[in-house]
Amino acid sequence: MGAKxxxxxxxxxxxxxxxxxxxxxxxxxxxxxLERLHPEARLSPxxxxxxxxxxxxRDGKVYAGxxxxxxxxxTEDVALDYxxxxxxRFVDEAQGRTLYLHAMHxxxxxxxYAIWVDGVLRRSLSLAPEDGIIENIGAQLDFEKPYWAGExxxxxxxxxxxxxxxxxxxxxxxxxxxxxxxxxxxxxxxxDDPDLFELVLVGYRRS
Length: 207
Prior knowledge:
DUF6928
């Protein structure tokens, strides 16, 4: 597994149905979102990105896509060990929409996600093998429960030490993508999955 993400999604309703329609972004609104979320920065335009290749931008790059009923933002600012500490301006941007944070890093097997409803944090989870459970706030969602129950065990060689969790964090991260957003970066692909390369994100470099 090798996927990396640090993304926010602000949703009025079902995210998967919006993504499956492959909408084009509102470019002016996308820039305005990034200006509000990074008020200290001067934004210089980049070539367009997409949700397949730019879910984990680095080097000062930020991306956004404002679509009907959905806003997607990818920025390293949300790669937080403690998702509950997301700066308030990112939460305020929801303006009544449901806010989802998804972050994972394959090098360290770290996964985190969080959900805010009406500006209130409902669920936050962050875990990695070297650090254990970093944050665990709110009730488990249904898609998590089989993993915590040991139904997706990690396979290790007999000579290896036991894995610190009963599941692999990145597998749960992919399950979260499927359950919350209707797609995966790695794992199974369904016939009606959106083409992530066709989901355009407007890109800028911060300075």
